Amino acid sequence: QTKTGIALLYDEVSENAYDIRLKLTKEVLTIQKQDVVCVSGSDHSANHRTVTLRRQPVGGLGLSIKGGAEHKVPVVISKIFKDQAAEQTGMLFIGDAIIQVNGINVENATHEEVVHLLRNAGDEVTITVQYLREAPSFLKLPLGSPGPSSDHSSGTSSPLFDSGLHLNGNSTNTAPSSPSSPIANEPKYEKRWLDALSVPLSMARISRYKTGTDKLRSNAFEVLALDGVSTGILQFYTAQESADWLRAMSTNISDLTLQNMKMANKCCSPSDQVIHMGWVNERLEGTDSSQLYKFKFLALKGSSFYIFSTPPVSTLDWVRAEKIYNLCEVLFKIHKLWLADDCWLQANLYLGIHQDFDLEDQRPYCFSVMVGHGKSHYFNVELGSELAVWEKSFQRAIFLEVQRTGSKTYMCSWQGDTLCFTVDFALGFTCFDSKTKNVLWRFKFSQLKGSSDDGKTRVKLLFQNLDTKQIETKELEFQDLTAVLHCIHSFIAAKVASVDPVFIDSQSIARKYMYSN
């Protein structure tokens, strides 16, 4: 199914926006711009059209103009009146820039100069025009067909308001002139939407933020293709339109990602399947403590969590990852949701409390992945639905990896002895001597009643003895304590999920919000 609609393309350099038409299919987003095309007859110059208008006693030239050099835009035809001189030629269109009037070049003329020239050009006026494909939106040119002839333009002209040239001007001819009708063999022209840019959506990414900042664009976003080609900033007339288009494009990108995953999984063993992948923004701390964001492509595949700067396209690309972490040793955490149904936020808005939110980050839909040695990665996605998918995918990938691995053993020490600590999906926790392999103690997952650590290398695990009901404290020292704690968390969560899957679903923060939303 194809979705179409009118939007604006915003140019950050000139700060102008102009009308475009969007065409969205399952695989491609096409940007179309209006242009005048020759549909029949020999077209001497496709770009420039020269038209002779005969001024009529009633209705004059039958057009209005806007713009001028003082606004850094050419003078353009802003209205064409039905059944009057300009329309009868069949060769003039709203949006045509006037280049010459009776042989005089007016490309750099002011609005007033062009009005004066046209009003005093006599009964026959020859104008050369060229369609202005990127007419700034401040000119507010209608996209439609000629309007009714009753126009109440004032005699005073202004570059951003229509100057009516359906007024008679200085006409010397009192007899009604013959209409400016097209001659049989003259070329015929039509205004059409033409494809200007096509952006493939496979592995494309969307950004609603001004590059690298926390500044959210108002009702606007850009789409970037895998090869870096950008649509430019697409601006919408309402927040609803912007949200609809954002959702539609995100859905198509997600569907294509799913197809890519299925293709990739055909070449992978059952234990090395891609669970989920997609674009996110990663927050990078700048040297001056400013927050910079960079696009990153994440993937959950087999036993690993991958971070890429560009998506893996071939099998060989998987070794190019910037970072690879074992899924048992990472911890996924949702940071913040700003949603319409957030009671706290709604109450504040209702009470008119517009305090500056003193939050570590101005972006909604954030999550972090905590990894070994106390480090973590902080990410942000564009939509709440994406956050829910990442949360569920991380859970699934971690649980699968725990069940596949079955157990993980870490070297540790206590009071000078080198020990081994095993987390086992079936047995729970076991500690044994690394040399003699003698088991020192063993407890089930259900016996773990608490833990505390020094944030560096030492951890105290509190177990309940099943016979005495007393709490036994076991103290151990690890090289990478964070990885071990994450592993314990992963195994316990996977154990709970295997016994009570509904419980895990009930813990999903993002999905709770998604359903209530």
Automatic annotation (TrEMBL):
Annotated localization: Cytoplasm, Cytoskeleton
Positions of the PDZ domain: 50-133
Extent of the signal sequence: none
Molecular function GO labels: actin binding; structural molecule activity
One GO cellular component term noted in the UniProt record for this chain: syntrophin complex
Family stated for the protein in its record: Belongs to the syntrophin family.
Protein name: SNTG2 protein
